[in-house]
Amino acid sequence: MGRGKDMNAVRKLSIPEIELMSPGHVACQGCGATLAFRYALKALGRKTIVIIPACCWSVIDGPFPHSSAGVPLFHTAFETAASTTSGVKAALEVKGNSDVSALAWAGDGGTMDIGIQALSGAVERGDDIIYVCYDNEAYMNTGIQRSSSTPHGAWTTTTPAKNFKKGPKKNMVEIMLAHKIPYTATANIAFPEDFIAKLQKARAIKGPKFIQILSPCPVGWKFPSHLTIKVAKLAFETCIYPVYEVENSRYTIKRPNTKKPVKLYLEQQGRFRHLTDSTIDEIQENVDREWEILLNRESASHVEAAKA
Amino acid sequence: MKKVITGNHTVSFGVKSARVEVIAAYPITPQTEVVEKLSEMVADGELKARFIKVESEHSAMAACIGASATGARAFTATSSQGLALMHEMLHWATGARVPVVMANINRSLGPPWNIWSEQTDSLSQRDTGWLQFYCENNQEILDTIIQAFKICEKVSLPGMVVLDAFYHSHTAEPVDIPDQKLVDRFLPPYNPEYKLDINDPHTFGGLTGPEYYYELRYKIQKAMVESVDIIKSVGKEYGNMTGRNYGLIEEYKTTGAKQLLVASGAMAETAKDAIDILRKKNKKVGLLRVRAFRPFPKEDLKKAMSKAEVVGVIDRNISLGNEGIFFQEIKSALYNEKRRPAIYGFIAGLGGRDVLEDEIVRIAEDISKRSFKKEITWVGAKI
C-alpha cells in the first residue's frame, strides 16, 4: 500500500498571500489558535462573516475599539456559535448574498460541551455554514479547566495531577458523521496548506461543514512558546491526533512517514509530566487501537464508495 | 381585509404584513399555531422569508440576533419556559442593539405544569432591555406586531408583543388586516446603519472594559427613554392609517373618576365591562390599561392618576417575596409626587384562573371603602 501517497502529494498548495488578520491581536506567545485564524481568513478571503462565541478568541481579537479581524465579526454567547451563524447565513440568503461564507469560530468547550446542542441542530437542518473548532483541549481562556475535549491523562486546573483527566476525549468528527454531514475534517496548525485546502473545499460544498483544528496552547499544555509547531507536528506524527477528512462518508487520512511513539509527544508537555510509564503505555495502546480503527474506517469507506 | 382569527394566527398575519425576512422558532404550547401558520405561509411563498426550525428557544433567539445583525427583519415567538430559556439571549439582543421582535404568549411557569395565562414569564424579563407591549385583544395584537417593528427599528432595541394564553391565543375574533400597500408605506424595509457587511467590516460586541461599557448602557437607557415619544408618534401614525390609535396607556371612562383600577392584557377587557357596570350604578370609577410596560409609562400614569383618590392595581403575576409587578412599578413611579392616591394591590388569575367581572366590581367597591387597608389581596384564592 502506497501509504498516504495521494493525500500528501495533492496538498502542495501555496498559502494565499491575502492577509486579513492584523498583528495587533492580544494572544499569548506561541498561540496555536491565532495561527489557525490567520490561515482560515487566508483560505476564505474577504467574503466571510465570522461569528465567535465565548472562547480565547473573544479576547484575542482585541479590546474595543480595536479588532484584528479584517472581516465582519460578531461576538455571541458561549453556546450559540452554530445558531447565531445559522441566523447570519439565513439573512445572507434572503438578501441574495449567498456567496458570502458564514464561519463559526469556536473553541472546544463552546463546541463539544456547551454548544453541542446548537451545533447538532444546525448540522441536522443542513444549514450552509462552516464551523471550525480550534481545539486546545481545555477551557484555556478561563484558566485551563478540563473540557470534554481534554485527552486522557492530562492535567488541568480542575483535573489536578493526583486525579488527572480519565477517559478519552470526545470524538466530535464521529458525532458530526452520525449527522450525515457532507464534509468534516480534522486539521493541525503545523500543516497550514492542508487546513487551507480543507477550508476552501468546505466553502465550495453546500450544507454544513465541520473542521476541527488542533491548536496547541503553550500556557495550558505547559511547553515553551517557541515549540508550538513542534508539539503540533508530534501530535500528527505519533497519530494521537490524526489528520483526516470525510467527504460524503469517504475517509482520507493524512499519514506520517513513520508513526512515532506517543511518549515523544507527551514528554514535551508539562500537562502530562505526572504520568507513570504504565499510563503512558496505556495511552500508546489507545492511540494504536484508535489509529487502526481509523485506518479500517478509511478502507471500508473506499470499498463502499467503489460499490456506489 | 377582515378575518375571524385566533390570537395566534393574528400574530402570524402581523408577521406576514411586516414582511419579516428571517423567522427562527421552536414550538411550545400555547404558541404552536403561530409557527405552524408561519411555516405554511413560508412554504406557500406568501411570505418570502427563511424559517429556521431550531432545536431550542435559546437557539431561536441566537439565530434571530444573527439575522438581525446581518440586516434582516427577524421574528420569533415563544411562551413561558421557552422565554425563560431565552433569557441570556434577551440580554444579548439588547446589547447588540438588534430590533428583533417576538410574540410571547403569557403562560405560567412550572412546576407544576400549567399552560394557562399568567404574566410572570414576560415580567421576569423586565430588566433585559426589551420593549414590552401587553395587548388587550386580537386586533391590538395585529396592530402592535406591525408597530413594534417600526418602533424597535427606530431605537435599535428588541421588542416583545405579549398576549394571553387561550384568552387570546386560541380565541377567534374579527381582525382587520390593513391593506399591504398601506403597511409597506408605514413600515419600509429594514435598513440599519450598522450591520455585518463584507464591504464595511466591523467587529460587534468585542471585549469592552469599564472605560466604555458604562456609556454603552447609558445609551441603551437613553434609547428606551426616547422610545416613549416614538411609541406615541408611531401609534398616532398608525391611527391615521387605520383609525386605531395607540399610546403607552389607555384611559377608559376616567373622566371625573375618584377611583381607578389598573389592569393589562386580556383582563383589561373584562375590567372594562366591570367599569361599565359600576358607571351604571353612578360610581366614579375608571380604568387605566397599561399597554407599554417597557419603557414604563411613568409620566402618563402620573398624569392619569393625578386626580384619583384611590387606585387598585390588578396583577396576573407576582414577584414572589414582594408583590404584583405592575403594583410595584406604579408605586415606585408615584413616590416623588406631592399628591399621591392611596394604592392597593390585587393578585388575580394566576395559572389561568378566570377573573370575572363581578370580582373586579368587588375590587372597586372594596377600595372605595375608607376602612380598606389591605395592601395586597389575593382575589378568589382558596386560602
Q: What is the 3D shape of chain A?
A: globular
Going across the major beta sheet of chain A, what is the strand order?
Answer: 2-1-3-4-6-5-7-8
What's the CATH topology label of chain A?
A: Rossmann fold
Poorly predicted runs of chain B are: none
> How many DSSP-defined strands of chain A?
8
List the helices and strands and how they pair.
The complex is a heterodimer of chains A (308) and B (383).
Chain A: H1 5-10, H2 32-44, E1 48-52, H3 56-60, E2 73-75, H4 81-94, E3 101-107, H5 108-113, H6 116-125, E4 130-135, H7 172-178, E5 183-188, H8 192-204, E6 209-214, H9 218-221, H10 228-237, E7 243-247, E8 250-254, H11 263-266, H12 277-307
Parallel strand pairs in A: 1-2, 1-3, 3-4, 4-6, 5-6
Antiparallel strand pairs in A: 5-7, 7-8
Helix pairs in contact in A: 2-8, 4-6
Chain B: E1 2-6, H1 7-17, E2 22-25, H2 32-43, E3 50-53, H3 57-69, E4 74-78, H4 80-95, E5 101-106, H5 120-123, E6 131-134, H6 138-155, E7 159-164, E8 172-176, H7 180-186, E9 203-204, H8 210-242, E10 249-252, E11 259-263, H9 267-280, E12 285-290, E13 292-294, H10 298-304, E14 310-315, H11 325-334, E15 342-347, H12 357-368, E16 376-378
Parallel strand pairs in B: 2-3, 2-4, 4-5, 5-7, 6-7, 11-12, 11-14, 14-15, 15-16
Antiparallel strand pairs in B: 1-8, 6-13, 10-12
Helix pairs in contact in B: 1-2, 1-6, 3-4, 6-8, 9-12
